Fold these 3 entries.
Entry 1:
Amino acid sequence: MKKSTLTAAAALAFGFLAAEKAHSAPCLLITLTGVQGGPSTFNGQAGAGTLVQYGEDGNNCRDVSLQFDTGRGTTQRLFQAKTPVGRLNAIFFTHMHSDHSEGLADILQLRWHFNSAGPKVDIVCSEDAKVTGPLTYTISCRNFAAHIGDALIASGEISQRRRENQKRLEGGPSDLTNVMAFEPKDEPSVVWSSGDVKVSAIRSAHIAGHASYRVDTPAGSVVIGGDAGNDTRKPPRETSTSAQVELLAKDVDVIVHSVIHPVMGPGKGTGFPPPIYYRQSDASDLGAMAKRAGAKHLMLTHLIPPVGAPNQGPPYPLPDGPLTEDDYRDAVSSSGFSGNVVVGSDLATLRLPGQ
Ligand SMILES: [Zn+2]
């Protein structure tokens, strides 16, 4: 009798330990916060962005929350992903195009409104990149962050709301940013870390200052390619994908990447401008890259054209009608990639390790 009681107690204790262990197992959660490709709109899709979260099973992997790009509607998608904007530890930008960045004003204004006491949010992006030529310009994430609240200051709203609550910061939303700019290189370098989470960046081609990222955690790893394309801007070339992203993605678990379908290519009747086509990575080349890199999952996002859309934009109609998910899948599988393919939709998630 005594023996069996002890055994039962031991079993109970073991059960608790096992449950505790499962509860504290590390996990990585990847959520597409928006899959719209380019500045146009389709069917309520949010603009480009990916939420990467790391934590334990017991808190649904939500110890660290990192947002990569902040397209239109990111705030709403974050709410749906149970991650209020005040919970973001850092925001990373692949590049300064509005379809990847315009949601920042919304995120920071909301944070200033309700979380002015802080903490600041890290804004991680490339250092200023000057482009010389007929129309010399500088791509500047620093300026973007510094001036993110200017229209609201100019309209008088920031002052009006400060009179209501003087704890709100005087400089408006930009006072809540901590810009961590880096010089993108052709080799991965660590640009942000916290505890077990390490984020590396690499230079990639699309526009000046474009960078791609990799997050490494004990639960798994993910590469965020952004709109990266090959350094050689048009054929002849071996592939449309970025050699640097491929290097960054070596043996990674998941690649999240913007994609363009070959139907948008020159001569296919859409009228889509070839230079814009060639600066993206196409679906079959992404499959081939994922295969060479040894990735287990490929998440396609920023789909050009969107699944089900009669056109890209307007003004680029698809002569053979809207694409299906299978059209993207078929283009990827033609490369021989045999891993898991997610044809992205808003709020599509992937969790590592699998349950
Ligand atoms: Zn884009």
Note: The pocket of zinc ion is lined by residues 38, 48, 97, 99-100, 227, 302 (CB under 6 Å).
Entry 2:
Amino acid sequence: MGKISEVMDILGKHFDVSRRTTLNRMRESGNPDAFKILIGCLVSINIKDEVCEKILDELFERAGSFEELLEINDDDLERILYLARYRRVKSERLKSVCREVLERFDGCVPSNREDLLSIKGIGPKTCNVVLSFAFDKKVIPVDSNTVRISNRLGWIDTEKHEDVEKLLVESLDGDRLRGANAIFMLHGKDICVPVSPFCSKCPVNEICLKKGVEKSR
Ligand code: SF4
């Protein structure tokens, strides 16, 4: 089994960083806006990145703050979210999060886990995206790609997201940790896919334990 940092370096060289997700690109822009990161993350849940980017382009043209987003009427907001599944639910959630940030935090996105998780509609993954992407905290958003790949590589033997996060935070330094989310996302989408991964073209094939992989290509 390769060391976690070495494996991440190999994977990082393999993937084209310009293909990072919309949220990752927002972070790389140099001056991440906590409002946009939080709203972007809520919009991105369960939709493809290409769709998310289109929606966010239009949404952020209309709203650059929580107040402005609340000024968009419900029908308009649902129209902007037209490509998203459950757009009514998503639209209501966006507005309730905006209201709560304004009422409880004076319009400033909290920079700590406890306050973020106390906002209705913000779960652990969104919380970590905000902490990592907007405030550069030493955390990593963990999703199903991250858990699957970490298990297959033999780094850990658990489905618990918090245990995977702990391992990665302890094992990766600043820049590696910052870049890891995009790498897991690209690797999980292109090569280490959920069913029958493409091990024959994987850059870490030689050092991967392939735990739990019954069939590969
Ligand atoms: S060798 Fe196969 S199981 Fe291991 S990381 Fe690569 S694609 Fe995934």
Note: The chain has two domains: 4-19+139-207, 22-134.
Entry 3:
Amino acid sequence: MEIVELAGMNRQELRAFIDEVPSIWEKKSGVFDRGMNPLLRNFGEKGNLLFGVHVYSIGSQGVAVILTEHDNDTNRATMRIHMTALVGLGGPSEWVHGEKKLRDAIDECKEETLAVVRAQYSGDLGWRGLSFKCPSCGASYFVSRRLVDSEGKTRCQNCNRIVSAVAE
Ligand SMILES: [Zn+2]
């Protein structure tokens, strides 16, 4: 397991940041160049803490799990990165190497990615996504255009329902 600390971002920014993790991986993966695709993500809240579980496939052989915790009081987040082989391909060392690689990539790109995420909010990169209010549960956050289909439907990160993406 590898740990990345992220300071100075609020919950919405963290949610948007997590959507950028596959892009960060693509940018930095180099020879370890299997694509990273989101399979599942979920958030839960308790008091000031936000907990996230994010599962990605790495090519067809591996799985990455990122556990996030965000403290609303300090605006600090921790990401715990786990990688494992799905079908026994690639020795354990390859996945340990992958964990380190993803940690380093996130570490290296975190300021730049946070700047992109903030630009999305300010509307500078409006085409990348929209401020979203779930018509079902009322949750407000930023949703990447990549996660909105051609009919304008997306999965709410909060209640997990498929809903129409309604800009706030
Ligand atoms: Zn919802």
Note: The pocket of zinc ion is lined by residues 134, 136-137, 139, 156, 158-159, 161 (CB under 6 Å).
